[in-house]
Amino acid sequence: MRGKFITIEGTEGVGKTTNIQFIQSWMDKHKLAYATTREPGGTPLAEQIRELLLSPREESVSNSAELLMVFAARAQHIYQVIEPSLSEGAWVLCDRFTDATYAYQGAGRLMDTGLIAELEMMVQGSLRPDLTLILDIPVQIGLKRAGERSTPDRFELEQVEFFERVRSQYLQIAKDNPQRCVVIDASKPLEAVQAQIGAALERFLESI
Ligand code: T5A
Q: Which domains does the chain possess?
């Protein structure tokens, strides 16, 4: 049987990386075979593109160049990791996917979402996540958490308004896709966040 595709999303510093470890323990507990991966990245080529995308640079990057790099990395990632894993029956747990493109390039950079949809169709065909956990916190709290953890990457240098648009877009995506998306209040202490994630995963498992 084909595996399930789970994505985890949110603005900067919401706790995706922290909570992926919790989801891995949940999958271990349920004896599920899985692959953990991330975007941009997940293969040697896609990780190189990630480096190009995230490194702060003096040269201003055009929105189109950024969008095409995101989808170039995704195409390789799907080809090399996501599709083979799902076909073998493994679940795929992915730190960000195309919802991030609608949020960051669509709402953040104000790019045409029709264009994003065309690239999505070209690169993914019918591939969509089965479950998306959207970790939500006020933008300032996330940026503070991310800032305390590491030096800012090229995206984290953006203005607060950019991330407010990104956050609103994620909440809109959740509203438009209630079957697939679960919004997690990530402003709570870690144990409370993980209780919400655990409950969402149990509900998903029961539904399949
Ligand atoms: N991007 C990506 C696009 O523009 N388009 C796309 O299509 C895609 C796929 C890289 C960037 O790429 C952009 C968006 C991004 O800017 P990324 O590596 O996922 O994506 O970058 P970040 O969102 O910046 O991820 P981070 O690793 O910075 O944040 P996380 O993983 O969400 O947060 P995490 O787990 O590292 O936690 C941050 C800190 O908060 C603490 C943790 O201990 C850590 O110190 N923390 C908590 N503290 C208190 N209470 C809690 N509940 C906490 N949970 C975590």
A: 5-207 (3.40.50.300)
Going by C-beta distance under 8 Å and a sequence separation of 6 or more, which residues neighbour residue 95?
7, 8, 16, 17, 20, 36, 37, 38, 39
Is the minimum distance from the CB of 74 to ligand 1 under 6 angstroms?
A: no
Residue 54 CA, ligand 1 centroid: distance in Å? 13
What confidence tens digit (pLDDT) does each residue in 98-151 have? 999 999 999 999 999 999 999 999 999 999 999 999 999 999 999 999 888 888
C-alpha 38 to ligand 1 mean position (Å): 11
Instruction: Say which DSSP state 188 is in.
Output: S
pLDDT tens-digit series, residues 95-107: 999 999 999 999 9
Distance CA 15, CA 20 (A): 9
**Residue 63 C-beta-side C-alpha neighbours within 13 Å:** 14
